[in-house]
Each structure stands twice: as structure tokens, then as C-alpha cells.
């Protein structure tokens, strides 16, 4: 099953590679990983999407918690949470099928953030599934480039 | 007080109570050596290879219970140390390794003797630090010792750039305490889990205690004895746990696992309640996981939550120090009645009657098992025994019953050949009055021979018991069983004359070729209190380690010496190491 794991870790050099290294050394799977500083400049927030059965996810959480630089580990999937992902998608737009593309953008809540004579750059934000759905809706041959941020998320309760 | 980084480091080490450092100098650590030279209460042991330094510090830590310290230079100094660091990591040994690094200005430039020490060691340390600012140094040293010695212990690397050691700053003393929000390893034992465990223990008809290295590292020997006596439960110990509970006690079933006793493995298999104490269900213990302890409820005591449920699902997890957990169990069991387990003990006595450790003697050859038995007799069971890795390691574990903890020193997790000799040197430094024996083989000993020179220089007399069968014995055994006797590269041709070799290093060498010479030679060796003696003993080259759970089999499917044909191993088994 797909799990979203959220970490707070010391904002120190090497912390990211400790987490990434743990996943490869123990053969855990990473679907996506995002990391950035938080409002507390001593902390980074990392969000990892991994797929595994309950036993593996439990081991992932425990092994992450064991890393000295990791301050908190939360399995967001185990609680009510908000997840978001952003994608920038560059699309080949030829006047003949521009209308069709406009329709897909509209249906998936996309936003054209840049347009040239024959390309659109579209921003899609939402759950990962929405981003995936949008990409599936567009004819693969017309997609020139995709850059997805990976999932980030927060739990909905005031404290977790 | 104005000090340079090197002086600050030495000041910190003094404040940590460090008395021995095992190390090897080089360009990046010259300032540290300069400062160390001016310090007269830390002894430095100049090894001959950095791997020897780390194994030395490791043996020292295992015997003394203190944090071992090793000091190496950048580049090859650090890479040579990696095997030692990984060895300590797998066996949860408290250790701080200090490595020099090139100056921060040239890091990343592929400078002379530069390697990414933090990157290389990341997966085999508990934690590591790169120090680029002298102002950070004292705090990091404090953190390193704190991390290495608390919770589940392990090695911590401090990689220090050369400029950090040179820069002078105003030093206002070693920090007295440290608080790390991201590292709070000491947890109180959960009362609810104790209640659940008690409920299982009081219903158990076929209980067994399975104790591991955590009982040794957690200094929980006394508590383990109290708990075992209090419950009258049988106890089996892992390779890493030997000595925490006295092997010669009637409740002890000996070691379990791949080369454990018949009674220990059968009792594990048939048990309805296993109390795992500081043990991690390693693959050498469990055998085939699908066949592991099919009838048992499992209670698992461990300081490391990630050990729980890693390979085997458990019913009750008690996270905390072994001492605290066992104490809580003893208190909770005081007014409880346990099930009468006389029938269980009767069954165990039947298994014991199989006498799985029996071996056949043959006239004209020295059986390796008899060497260990003679060693036990000559040292009256009181020696510290280190070992290398292979058949001799198993025989030492099987035929030298350890009654006290921190007497059996071996690389259980990583299985590092070459560990035994430098570890013996560290053991002798930690406990100079003890007799120290290094049980080894002609394969392993040649991996760290150079430390014979260090041992002369620092006067650490140990007795090297070389079980010389001319083969990489464990490899040969597996080739015999699983590769149709195709002995690929397991034969040791062109061995040195170990007697002359020992003599050339300034030690005593004795060669034993006949059975009747064995005991007199060992007696003579241990008489030489102040000398290292290399006893080279020619043993039966065809002897195998039994009993044995072959790869892919369960505890109840073990093979006994001379009684079972080696069954062919299935494909699944061949994939196991």
C-alpha cells in the first residue's frame, strides 16, 4: 500500500543523504521524496512516498526514527491528512487540437503559466492522483516535458 | 584559555575518561598527534594497520564495557578502518573513531589522501560528524560519546579537517551535559506491555528464555540470573550472548541456532512461549523463518524498537534496557503462580540425552574440539577468549562454557576474519590480569598478523591457539555439503612456519602435531605469563562443525555428527549465505 511519511529533521548537511541512503541500503522503495526548510530554520521537512506492506512500512518508520538527525516521523496515511503535488507540464499545442487540450486543462483544474506559439506550460496542483490523471488524459505524444515535485503533506489535526 | 583544535580534542578525550587510544598517524592528524604527545594520561597504542586499531578498540570496549577509541588519518587510514567500524556496528559496540580529513578549503578537490569519510561510513556507523569549525569541536565530541554509549550502542565517527585542529580559539571547557531533541534513546519500560508479558508467562507450559548480546552489553547478567532462577525456565543463549548466563548451570541449554545444541533448538521449536532478551532474531538463529517456532507466543525485550518485528513478528514488545525490563517482570511475577513445567523439563532432559556435542575421536589426529576442551581445562574456564571467524569460532563457542559475561569476544554479526588477534590485544589492555586466548585458524590469523609487532611493543601477552587444518574450514565444510565436494580455493597452500614467524616477532612459538603434546603445550604456553605464545596446532583437516541446521531448514531438522547424512539442500537453501 502507498504511504506518505512526513519527517522533521535537523537542517544539517548530510541529513538528506542519511535518509536516502537508508532506503537504498535496506532495499526500501521510494516513490517520491521532497525536502525543504521550514519556518524553524533549524528544521527541514521531508515527505516521502513509499509502497510496502504494513510490516515494511513499520520498519521504515522505525528505521527513520532511529536516524540521529530525525526529530519526528509521522505516517500521514495513518491519520487524516492533506496531500498535494504540483506538476509543470510542457505540451506541444498545435492549433488543430488546442481546444481539446484546453478542455483537459479545465477539467483537471490546470493553469497555463506560460504559452508560446506552439507550446503551453501548464501547472497542475492537487493530490498525486489528479496530476497522474491529467498526464494520462493528454496524448503522450504531445507531452514535451514533465516535472513533478513529489508529494508533500500535513496532518489535519492541530497536533499529531 | 586559548587552545588549538587538536589540544581541545585531547582535552575532551581526557574529560571523557579515555585512557587508551588505538591509532596510526598520518598527515591529516599530525596536529592531533602533537597534542596527544604532550598528554601523559592517555596511552596511545601504535598499531600496524588501521583495521587493527579499530578491532583493538573494539576488543577493549567489549571487555571493559567502556567506549573504545581509535584514531586514524584521512584517505587510506579511514578506508582501512571501515571493516573494523562495520564489525563494531553489527555487534553494537560503543566506540568513537576519530579520522583526520583534508583542510576544509580543499574538501571536494580530490586532494591528497582525501576520501568522503562521512559518505563511506554512513551505513556502518550509528552516527557520524564532519567537523569544519573548531568552535563546534567540543560539542560534537560530547555528542559522539553520548550517542556511542547510550541506547543501543554503536560506533560514531568524527571526521575532523586539518584546519580545525590547527585553528586556535578561546576554549571554555568541555560541555558537562548535552541535550539532543532528535535523540532520546532511554525509554521507560511500558507497564501495559509488562502485564501482557506476565499473562503469557503465567500460562506458559513450554517456556524458554532466548538471551542475546543485549544481555551482555546491557550489563544484565545478574538480573538475567535472577529472572531465570525465579521462573525455573530453561535458557538458551546466542553466539553474542554467551556468558551472560552461566553455561555450566543446569538451566542452561547452551547455544542455539545453526550450530547450537539439539536441546536448545528443539526446545525453541516446541516452545509455547519464548522470552527474547536483547536478541534480534538473526538469520543464524532462526534458520528458515517459515519453520521458526511455530507454536510460540513471543515476548521481545530490546532497547532498539527497530529490532522488534524486523524478521519475526512478536506478541509483546518491551522496549527498554534489559535490566529494567527483567526487573519489572520479576516484580510483576512475584505474587503470580506459574504453570508446573516438570513435564517440559523431562522432555528437555530427553533431548539433552541425545548428547549432540559428542564427537568421534580418531587416533593419530588432533580433534579441534579437544583443543578447546583442553584450553578450558588449562585455563580453568577463567580466560578471556577472543576468536576469529570460521569453524574454530564455532568450536570455541561450543566447547568452552562461559560462566561470566565479557569473556567471549567474537565478531558475530559481520563475521570478520582478522578480528581475533587485535581484539585479544585490546582485551589484554582492558584487563591486564586476565589470561587472554585468541582462538584462530591459519586462514584468519594471516589477515591481521602484523599486530604481533604491536603486541610486543606494548607488552600485551596473549596466547594464540591456532587450529591449523590447512583449509578455510567453514568454506570447505560448505563445499563438502552443498557443492559436491568441489573444494574451490579453500585450501591454504604455502603456509608459513608459524613458530619461526612468532619468533621473528619476538614471541614464543610452539608447534603441536601429536595429541599427547597438546595439553603440555597449552600448560607451557599459559605459564609464560609475560610472553605472547603462538601455539600452532595441526588439527584434523576433515572435521566438520556439528550439529548443524542446514540452510533452509527449521530448528527441528538439525543434523547430528555421525548420525545424519547431509541432506541435499533445496534451491531456496542455496540462496542463503
Can you give a write-up of this model?
The complex is a heterodimer of chains A (160) and B (577). Helix content of chain A is 28%, strand content 41%. With 160 residues, chain A is an alpha+beta fold. Chain A has two domains: 2-78, Alpha-Beta Plaits, CATH 3.30.70.260; 82-155, Alpha-Beta Plaits (2-Layer Sandwich), CATH 3.30.70.1150. In chain A, the strands form two sheets. In chain A, strands 5, 6, 7, 8 and 9 form a five-stranded antiparallel beta sheet that branches. Chain A has a four-stranded antiparallel beta sheet with strand order 2-3-1-4, covered by helices on one side. In chain A, a hairpin with a 5-residue loop joins strand 2 (32-37) and strand 3. Chain B is built from 22 helices and 20 strands. In chain B, the strands form four sheets. In chain B, strands 3-2-4-5-7-6 form a six-stranded parallel beta sheet, sandwiched between helices. The interface between A and B is medium-sized, with 20 and 19 residues.
**Helix count from the secondary structure assignment of chain B:** 22
Q: Which residues of chain A form runs of ≥5 with pLDDT under 50?
A: none
Low-confidence stretches of chain B: none
The number of distinct structural domains of chain A comes to 2
Q: The CATH topology of the largest domain in chain B, please?
A: Rossmann fold
Gap between N and C termini of chain B, in Å?
Answer: 56 Å
- The total of beta strands of chain B comes to 20
The level 1 CATH classification of the largest domain in chain A is Alpha Beta
Could you say which structural class the secondary elements and strand pairing of chain A correspond to? Answer: alpha+beta
State the end-to-end distance of chain A: 22 Å
CATH superfamily of the largest domain in chain A: ACT domain
Helical residue percent band of chain A: 25-40%
Number of domains of chain B: 3
Q: Return the string of H and E elements of chain A.
A: EHEEHEEHEEHEE
The number of distinct helices of chain A, counting runs of at least 4 residues, comes to 4
Secondary-structure arrangement, i.e. CATH architecture of the largest domain in chain A: 2-Layer Sandwich
Amino acid at each position: 500500500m502507498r504511504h506518505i511519511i512526513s519527517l522533521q529533521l535537523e537542517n544539517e548537511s548530510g541529513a538528506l543523504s542519511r535518509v536516502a541512503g537508508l532506503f537504498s541500503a535496506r532495499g526500501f522503495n521510494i516513490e517520491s521524496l521532497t525536502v525543504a526548510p521550514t519556518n524553524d530554520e533549524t528544521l527541514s521537512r521531508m515527505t516521502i512516498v513509499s509502497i510496502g506492506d504494513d510490516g515494511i512500512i513499520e520498519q521504515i518508520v522505525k528505521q527513520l526514527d532511529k536516524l540521529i538527525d530525525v526529530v519526528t516521523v509521522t505516517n500521514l496515511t495513518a491519520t487524516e491528512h492533506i496531500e498535494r503535488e504540483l506538476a509543470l507540464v510542457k505540451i506541444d499545442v498545435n492549433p488543430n487540437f488546442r481546444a481539446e487540450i484546453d478542455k483537459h486543462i479545465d477539467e483537471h483544474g490546470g493553469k497555463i503559466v506560460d504559452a508560446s506559439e506552439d507550446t503551453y506550460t501548464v501547472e497542475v496542483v492537487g493530490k498525486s492522483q489528479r496530476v497522474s490523471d491529467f498526464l494520462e488524459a493528454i496524448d503522450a505524444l504531445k507531452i514535451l516535458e514533465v516535472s513533478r515535485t513529489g508529494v508533500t503533506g500535513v496532518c489535519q489535526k492541530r497536533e499529531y | 584559555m586559548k587552545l588549538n583544535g587538536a589540544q581541545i580534542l585531547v582535552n575532551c578525550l581526557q574529560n571523557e575518561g579515555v585512557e587508551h587510544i588505538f591509532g596510526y598517524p598520518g598527515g591529516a592528524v599530525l596536529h592531533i598527534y602533537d597534542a596527544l604527545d604532550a598528554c601523559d594520561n592517555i596511552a596511545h597504542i601504535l598499531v600496524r594497520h588501521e583495521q587493527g586499531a579499530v578491532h583493538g578498540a573494539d576488543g577493549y570496549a567489549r571487555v571493559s564495557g567502556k567506549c573504545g577509541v581509535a584514531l586514524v588519518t584521512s584517505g587510506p587510514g579511514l578506508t582501512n578502518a571501515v571493516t573494523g567500524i562495520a564489525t563494531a556496528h553489527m555487534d553494537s559496540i560503543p566506540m568513537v573513531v576519530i579520522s583526520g580529513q583534508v583542510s576544509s578549503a580543499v574538501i571536494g578537490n580530490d586532494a591528497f589522501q582525501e576520501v568522503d569519510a562521512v559518505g563511506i561510513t554512513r551505513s556502518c556507523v550509528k552516527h557520524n560528524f564532519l567537523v569544519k569549525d573548531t568552535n563546534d569541536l567540543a560539542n560534537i565530541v560530547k555528542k559522539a560519546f553520548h550517542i556511542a554509549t547510550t541506547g543501543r550502542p554503536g560506533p560514531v565517527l568524527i571526521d575532523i579537517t586539518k584546519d580545525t585542529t590547527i585553528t586556535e580559539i578561546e576554549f571554555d571547557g568541555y560541555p558537562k551535559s548535552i541535550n539532543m531533541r532528535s535523540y532520546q534513546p532511554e525509554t521507560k519500560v511500558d507497564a501495559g506491555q509488562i502485564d501482557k508479558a506476565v499473562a503469557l508467562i503465567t500460562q506458559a507450559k513450554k517456556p524458554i528464555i532466548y538471551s542475546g548480546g543485549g544481555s551482555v552489553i546491557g550489563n544484565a547478567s545478574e538480573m538475567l540470573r535472577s529472572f531465570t532462577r525465579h521462573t525455573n525456565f530453561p535458557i538458551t543463549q546466542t553466539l553474542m550472548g554467551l556468558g551472560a548466563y552461566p553455561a555450566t548451570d543446569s538451566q542452561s541449554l547452551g547455544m542455539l541456532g545453526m550450530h547450537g545444541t539439539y536441546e536448545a533448538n528443539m526446545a525453541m521449536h516446541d516452545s509455547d512461549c519464548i522470552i527474547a532478551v536483547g536478541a534480534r532474531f538473526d538469520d543464524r538463529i532462526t534458520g528458515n523463518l517459515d519453520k521458526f517456532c511455530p507454536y510460540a507466543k513471543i515476548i521481545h525485550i530490546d532497547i532498539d524498537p527497530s529490532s522488534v518485528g524486523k524478521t519475526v513478528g512478536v506478541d509483546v514488545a518491551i522496549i527498554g534496557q534489559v535490566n529494567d525490563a527483567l526487573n519489572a517482570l520479576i516484580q510483576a511475577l512475584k505474587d503470580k503462580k506459574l504453570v508446573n513445567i516438570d513435564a517440559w523439563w523431562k522432555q528437555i532432559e530427553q533431548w539433552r540425552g541425545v548428547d549432540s556435542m559428542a564427537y568421534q575421536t580418531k587416533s593419530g589426529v588432533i580433534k579441534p574440539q579437544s583443543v578447546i576442551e583442553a584450553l578450558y581445562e588449562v585455563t580453568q574456564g577463567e580466560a578471556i577468549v577472543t576468536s576469529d571467524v570460521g569453524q574454530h569460532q564455532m568450536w570455541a563457542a561450543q566447547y568452552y562454557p562461559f560462566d561470566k559475561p565479557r569473556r567471549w569476544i567474537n565478531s558475530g554479526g559481520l563475521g570478520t576474519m582478522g578480528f581475533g588477534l587485535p581484539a585479544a590485544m585490546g582485551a589484554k589492555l582492558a584487563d591486564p590480569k586476565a589470561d587472554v586466548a585468541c582462538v584462530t585458524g591459519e586462514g584468519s590469523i594471516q589477515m591481521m598478523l602484523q599486530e604481533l609487532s604491536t603486541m610486543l611493543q606494548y607488552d600485551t601477552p596473549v596466547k594464540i591457539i591456532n587450529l591449523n587444518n590447512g583449509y578455510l574450514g567453514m568454506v570447505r565444510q560448505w563445499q563438502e555439503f552443498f557443492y559436491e565436494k568441489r573444494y574451490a580455493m579453500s585450501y591454504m597452500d604455502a603456509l608459513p612456519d608459524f613458530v619461526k614467524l612468532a619468533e621473528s616477532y619476538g614471541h614464543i612459538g610452539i608447534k603441536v602435531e601429536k595429541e599427547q603434546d597438546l595439553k603440555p603445550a597449552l600448560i607451557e604456553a599459559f605459564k609464560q605469563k609475560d610472553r605472547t605464545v603462538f601455539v600452532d596446532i595441526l588439527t584434523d583437516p576433515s572435521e566438520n562443525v556439528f550439529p548443524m541446521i542446514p540452510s533452509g531448514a527449521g530448528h527441528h531438522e538439525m543434523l547430528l555428527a555421525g548420525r545424519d547424512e547431509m541432506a541435499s539442500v533445496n534451491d531456496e537453501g542455496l540462496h542463503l549465505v
